[in-house]
Amino acid sequence: MGWGFFAHQRINELAVFSLPPAMLVLYKSQQAYLKVHATDADKRRYIVAAEGPRHYIDLDRYGPPPYDWIPRSWQAALQQFGEDSLLQNGIVPWYIPQMMKQLTKAFQEKDLDKILHLSADLGHYVADAHVPLHACSNHNGQFTGQEGIHGLWESRIPELLADAGFNYWCGKAAYIRDVPAFVWQIVCTSALAADTVLRAEKSLSLRTPADARYAWENRKGKLVRTYAASYTKAYQQLLGNMVERRMRAAIHAVACCWYTAWVDAGQPPLTALVQKRPKENTILPDTGKMIGRVEE
Ligand SMILES: [Zn+2]
Predict the structure, then answer these.
(1) Which listed CATH number (3.30.160, 3.40.50, 1.10.3470, 1.10.575) goes with 5-193+243-274?
(2) What is the Å distance from ligand 1's center to 125 Cα?
(3) What is the whole-number distance in angstroms between the Cα of residue 34 and the centre of ligand 1?
(4) I need a labelling partner for 209 at 20 to 30 A (CA). Which of 100, 126, 195, 253 fits?
(5) How far is the CA of 262 from the centre of ligand 1 (A)?
(6) Cis peptide preceding 97, ω within 30 of 0
(7) Distance from the CA of 251 to the center of ligand 1, in angstroms?
């Protein structure tokens, strides 16, 4: 999944404010679109088989850090590991640079639908790369008896606590000189944080009785078992402000990626596109081409 629906929508929505005026003119007018479609990439996982691996990378499967020896180029990675193994362990850091190239092309072609579609999806993958449990094979605590931790970190904490004090202000978008290096820095930071994410919850759960860990909540007329608010807050405190920091970093990174794709396209004026209306899709269709050999 990546961040829950709430966080994904919030990240795409707020990234807009970090853009320069020449981009803001279009992105602000399409902010609702970028928000609504922030989660399409997750919905597509149920429809498109190739979608899954784009959302994560199990870095621990490559051995201990540092991960500077892993090829940053998809072609080189293909040669070294083979496609099956790459897809099995997740490809998010290779997929994001590909998407940015597609977005640059869309800007050059002044194709509104493609610009919005790719921006919404790109925002999703960049946000996912910031989630520690998306950079680690024990992604839902399934190896350590912590099933549910994925949703606790990326959905429960943001939904419960983000609007009660998260500081989202991340400054202006900056140009990314080396996109693969930028993305790998993000996933490596996530991978290093995964250990803390798992260990903190383990220690908290060991000193919290089960009936204080969970609560029942009424959601649309159904009783759903969820992490108790007090447990969620205690976990968030143990993590320092990690969820807030990763969310804020994601907002900034999304804006930087959109901005860089636009600069690489030669900074085309976007004002003329503001009058146009994008096609309405319930779920944005697949744009991926990350199978086999791709141009780099
Ligand atoms: Zn995702």
Answers:
(1) 1.10.575
(2) 6
(3) 15
(4) 195
(5) 24
(6) no
(7) 15
